[in-house]
Amino acid sequence: TGSLLSEIPAPPRPPKKPPCHGPRQVSGGQANGGTPARRYTLTLCIWHLTIAAMVFEKSLTAMVKGIRANRGKENEYIQTCIQEIQKEVTSKNLSTKSMAVLKLAYLSMMGYDMSWATFSVVEVMSHNRFGIKRPGYLASAMCFTDTTDVGLLTINLFKKDFGSKSQYESGMAISCLSSICTPQISRDILTDLLAMLSSSRAYLRKKTVLCLFRVFVKDPPALKTCFPKLKERLGDEDQGVLTASVNTFLELARKNARNYLSLVPQLYHILVNTTNNWLSIKLLKIFQLLCPLEPRLPAKLAEPLTNLLNTTKAQSVEFEAIRCTLRTMPEGTAIAALAVEKLQTFLNSSDRNLRYLALEMYKEALEKPAFKERFPIPDLHSKVLQCIEESDPTARRIALQLLDTIVSPATFVDAVKKLMDFSKKALINDEFVGTILRMGARDRYALVEDFAWYLLVLADISRSVDSLYASEVAEQFTDISVRVAGVRPYAVTLALSLLDRDTTVTTTSGTDEDEAHGQAGSMDVVPAMLGACAWVIGEYHEAFESPADACLIKAAKALLAPKHTQTLEPAIQTQCIWAAVKLFLGAPRVAPAAVSELRAQLTAQLPGFAASTHVDVSERAALALHLTNFFREGGLADSSVDGTSLFEEPLLPVAPGAQKAVPVPDGLDLDEPFFPEEQVPQAVFAPVRMDPTDPYALAATYKDDLGFLAAQEVPVAPSPARASGTEQSSMFYLGRNNSDGDAGDGAAQAGQQAAPAAPAAPLDPLEQMRERLAAARAAGGASTKYEVLRDDVRAPAGAPTPAAASGSAASKGAASSAALPIPPEKELSELQGRLWAVCYSDAHVRVYFCVRAKNAKKQQLRIELRCERVDVGSNASVANVALKLPAGVTAQEVDASGLVSLAAGSLTERSAKVRATLGLAPFLAPLTCSLAAEVQYSLVLADSAEERIAGAVELRLPATTFLAPAVMSEDDVATYMSSASLEKTAQAISLPAPGKSAAELAQELPGIVGRCAGLCHFYGIQSGQKFVMIARPPAAGQTSPLEGQVALPEGALIVSMCHGMPKDGSLEIRVTVKACHQGVTADVTVQLTSVFRELLEGRLRSTG
After folding, report:
1. Is the pLDDT of residue 629 over 90?
2. Which residues contact 545 (CB under 8 A, 6 or more apart)?
């Protein structure tokens, strides 16, 4: 206080006047204000009061220090401060009110409400002094919203401050306006902002340009008014204003880039002439948005992008140029190759930030199918594996995503081994495990070649009992066992090793020492994996190696071990019970000698499960016990053998919604428990340490404490001379007195020397399986070739669906509509393989081709070609037949000269089938596409030199080749057709079906239409004899080098309606196709009718 008082000067004392001896005169000043002494006294009092108010007024710094000083009582202190602020904002001193508003702004950042003080904020904003009004502008920018009533009072304040002589006051007002602008404020202030765009001060022009974007967001119609003046700022001489203008247009282009195509000439001129790195980055970002909308723009940008890549020294500009090139330029250009070369230097950089950017760019580029084919990067796989070890989690995550993209069957094993090593070192290993599971399950295990090894990997992952991917590991283990029949012997053996916990230990004395010895060979496995192992053992028990008696008995003991199984979840317990029943029922076929032992096991263990309080467990155990007793005591002769009849026919799959179709009986409440909830007794002593991750935490029990200490010592084999359960083995045994037991100790030592050595600890079950697998591989030489069932097993067509089971009126109305059954991919591929067509023929060679299959995920189309001699037996010699694809179309099988070899060497009669995998990126429109290719071959006639022949080839790709099924409901289709403007093409065809009645054709009609929908890539909905098929065209937003390939608008659909009218001996089908393009409807209609003809009277006709 003393220092503060010393800084404020006191009021001066009045001057002393000489005494006056004349008559007293009263002046006007004395009459109004008293004597000078009185005036001085009054001034001094006011000065003291002001000083006292300033001393006791709490500043922002003091409040912050007080908050920090009241640790643990911050809320009480802040409430006291708010009460003081409420008094301060009513003060007539605007300096005090300004400080109060500043403190409220700070408290609002901590989450406290200050909406009650908005009028005081406006009062502070209206002051003339910059230092006082500044907290008001700050507080309004922080707390004013669109619903703040007093916000309209700020319009005149803005107008006044826009005309201030100080550019900083005007700039402060502009910044505040960008935060609190509303449509009402925008309409009244827009004229003033336009005037500010022409200000002579660059600082204000820059602020105004940036503020306008926020105004446009709040009031979009203002953009039309301001666009001409904003466009003029692209020619501003000041670099700050120019950069702000480009940045504003960039943000606007991100919302709708098509509106700013007219700015391309100006933006291009700025890009070519600027030397500002920041400005170049913003311009490149804008061109990335504009290039997909203007096909001519990428070619125009090739030169400036090349200059930037070759000359710039700024790595930020270089990376943005690389990104712009890879996003906008075609893959076959030289600049694309230059960008990839520059990107590789980023990947090899020692800076982890640059490596992260390179990985992110590679991930984006590899999503294009043609990138990997044209720009192979040999060391990318090793670089990605190095980046997985990064400590930065974001870099590690992007590296894992990239590894998932680039991995191949040849590198899959090494990648998984690396990820497994990393997962064991990391504290949180779920991201590594998730990557392994995603790679393994891709395209139905397309990367997995050794399924026995992969099952071992899944078993190793299942040891992480707290993993988030436990259910996915169990699902893959079961799925592989179902799909890969060749790996089932290994799968059941591995499942048994995971389940087996040496259940014979439970029948011994039950001491802790025995329990530890019994579980030495077992391991902790996630419960979901135990259920999967139980299912695999029960379903494929016949895959156990012969003789299977011991394996079945061991599996039954492991499945029904009450000490372990009854601690699992009810669903897993039921799986274990039913797997044991399957072992018993299937034993007469695979292990007849084990039937009696299995029956004894089930009879002894199932009553314990039948007494469970879980309904599913109790019911399943009771049913299993009944089956066991029935096949032992039933009236059937040798009834145990009759249990094999249950396995004669495979069980058909059940539709997911089948359970919902079963009506709930009246009076049954499924939410009411059958038994009261079981109260789990709280353990007095916890079996493990309170915090297993903290080695210094206090132990919960003495046993744990001793175990923790013993774990740090070298383990010593237990002495066989001391039996378990004796007083010597007790943890509280202190030993005898030496004087009493010398002779006994000597005898004991002699016994220890004579006793045999302790048995070695059992090996890890997974290590045993690895050794077994390695031995089998060494004995068998090459790895086993597995046959994988990659198609989905479909439920019967008549299976009820959830929609049909619903009792609502809407569901009943839609019950007559159902999804059209589509044949599996394997059957469709076989049908496509029949549709060969001649694409070239001359006097010597004829070439055939067939559209075989499409991979929508990889954006690839597989066609097959073959050639044959026409003049067989002539003196002419034909050799080295090859196909040259048109420009813009790529194939994986092309050689260095750009040719696909159809027949290498001499062609005698007919060549083998040759596969060509085309990229689908150039095909954007669902129109019939005729590729103008060229066939080349060497011809040698009698007595003449070799001649190279070239002929034109037309590869005709149907319009439906480029479609993708669109899964939609009938209501969604109706909504789309009513809201879109569509063109229509209709055609009726009559197809002969001799020997078939109308009823037979009506029964076959769904299958015919389903095959047509699958071959033409449609999704179908059936409603009686009427069918609706829906498909999507290729995605919009790309450009194609092929002529006529223009993508349909985003969200467009192709809808086909088919109506079948069966008659005796014929089938009439009317096909109507609707789409937004007339050419699309015509070409799709032609293809659909052609496929229908082939299915009924052509090459696709069923032979059955």
Report:
1. no
2. 489, 493, 551
Residues 114-172 have pLDDT tens digits of 889 899 999 999 998 999 999 999 999 999 988 888 888 999 999 999 989 999 999 99
User: Is residue 1055 within a helix (H) or strand (E), and if so which, with residue range?
Assistant: strand 1054-1063
Sheet holding 947-957, edge to edge: 899-907, 877-884, 929-940, 947-957
Nearest to 688 by CA among 700, 679, 680: 700
Report d(CA 751, CA 597) in Å as an integer: 40
Neighbours of 207 (CB within 10 A): 25
The strand pair at 877-884 and 914-919 is best described as unpaired
Length of the chain: 1104
CA dihedral (1087, 1089, 1090, 1095) in degrees, to 10, reads 120
Contacts (Cβ under 8 Å, ≥6 apart) of 691: 697
Q: Sign of torsion, CA 637 639 644 648? A: positive
Nearest to 558 by CA among 450, 541, 542, 406: 541
Rounded Cα–Cα distance for residues 116 and 822 (Å): 65
DSSP string, 487-550: GHHHHHHHHHHHH---GGGGGS---HHHHHHHTTT-----HHHHHHHHHHHHHTGGGSPSS-HH
Q: Do 882 and 902 meet the contact criterion of CB atoms below 8 Å apart?
A: yes
pLDDT category of residue 564 using cuts at 50, 70 and 90: confident
CA atoms within a 13 Å half-sphere pointing along the CA-CB vector of 171? 10
Give the pLDDT band (50/70/90) at residue 714. Answer: very low
Q: Is 632 exposed, middle or buried (0-12, 13-18, 19+ CB in 10 A)?
A: middle
Q: Hey, which bits of 602-728 come out as E strands?
A: none
Q: CA–CA separation, 916 vs 893, rounded Å?
A: 6
Rounded CA-CA distance 298/284 in Å is 12
The predicted model gives 734-739 an average pLDDT of 42
In this structure, what token pair is assigned to residue 25? Answer: 């005169």
Burial tier of 303 (Cβ tally within 10 Å: 0-12, 13-18, 19+): exposed
Q: Which residue is associated with the tokens 């001129």?
A: 269
Render pLDDT for 1020-1054 as a digit per residue (tens, 0 to 9). 998 878 899 999 988 876 677 787 788 888 888 99
Residue 681 has a pLDDT of 55
Packed helices 595-610 and 549-559: angle between N→C axes, nearest 10 degrees: 10
Q: Whose CA is closest to 264, among 243, 242, 286, 285?
A: 286
- Given a contact cutoff of 8 angstroms between Cβ atoms, the answer to whether 686 and 700 are in contact is yes
Amino acid type, 723: A
Instruction: Give the list of residues 6+ apart from residue 565 with CB closer than 8 angstroms, or none.
Output: 559, 572, 573, 576, 609
Q: Write out the E strands in 958-1014.
A: 964-965, 983-992
The pLDDT tens digits of the residues spanning 636-691 come to 444 444 566 676 676 666 776 777 778 888 888 878 877 676 665 554 444 444 44
Tell me the H-state helices in 817-953.
Answer: 825-832
Sign of CA dihedral 514, 518, 523, 527: negative
**What is each CA distance from 123 to 100, 126, 131, 146, 975, in whole angstroms?**
12, 5, 14, 19, 55
Q: Treating both helix axes as pointing N-terminal to C-terminal, what angle do 183-197 and 202-218 enclose, rounded to 10 degrees?
A: 150
Vertex 453, ends 450 and 459: CA angle to 5°?
140
Q: How far apart are CA 840 and CA 332, in angstroms?
A: 28
How sure is the predictor about 589, in pLDDT bands with cuts at 50, 70 and 90? confident
Helical residues (DSSP H) of 611-741, grouped into ranges? 615-633, 639-642, 702-711
From CA 500, how far away is CA 558, in angstroms rounded? 5
The pLDDT tens digits of the residues spanning 717-732 come to 444 434 334 344 433 3
